[in-house]
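User: Can you help me understand a structure? I only have the sequence.
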Amino acid sequence: MFQRLREDINCIRERDPAARTAWEVLTCYPGLHAVVWHRRAAWCRAQGLHWLARFISHIARFLTGIEIHPGAVIGRRVFIDHGMGVVVGETAEIGDDCTIYQGVTLGGTSLAKGAKRHPTLGKGVIVGANSQVLGGFTVGDGARIGSNAVVLKPVPPGATAVGNPARVIHAELDAVREAAAAKMGFSAYGITQGDDPVARAMSGLIDNASSHEHQIALLWGAIEKLSARSRELPGTDCVPADAHTTEQFDAESFNRLVK
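Assistant: Let's start by predicting it. Here is the structure, written out as tokens:
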């Protein structure tokens, strides 16, 4: 018991720069208090003392502002930062090393008793303030949920979910898109990303343009080979004089247009 308490205190000191001493964490952090009370409530529930378990969780909610159902499963080194308004449902599972901020709800969308109604958080998940994660799905290891997001479907490991309803952001795809835009001298994120229709349209154009780049390069290579051969015969150059074989993309005017 004391080993897990030391783990909890140390993880809080590592993740919260405002935590100066172990004594301060032990006496002044409601997230730690809520987790300790929950362990007692969960033990009572495991012994069949369901009313006592719920009463302990009710007292913990009164003292900390954090409501954790005794049936929820909480891993090691879970940090509930600030914590006011956090609600964790009966069948929720929180993996090791997760961080949960104030106002978060790990809730359910089903009324079926005995069913898996609440989400499962993998290891190292970060859930931003006032986020709502609703349903019996899994949020993968290392995933991040942005503040005020409403998550209604699974989140892959390492991904980020933002918005209402939440959409999953794949960091690798965004990095490829930005690299393609940078080659053209255009800032893909010079405008507001997300649900802005212009931003989404520009992202689609960049994806489309980058997918054509290789095919165009092959075509010009073939044309230049044919042109080199045709020059051997007078008047048979197959490349028109006004053809543009170099890039003519005006990035500055394009940026001004969409800003």
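Now, to help you interpret it: The chain has two domains: 2-169, 173-258. Residues 2-169 form a domain with the UDP N-Acetylglucosamine Acyltransferase; domain 1 fold (CATH 2.160.10.10). Let me know which part you'd like to focus on.
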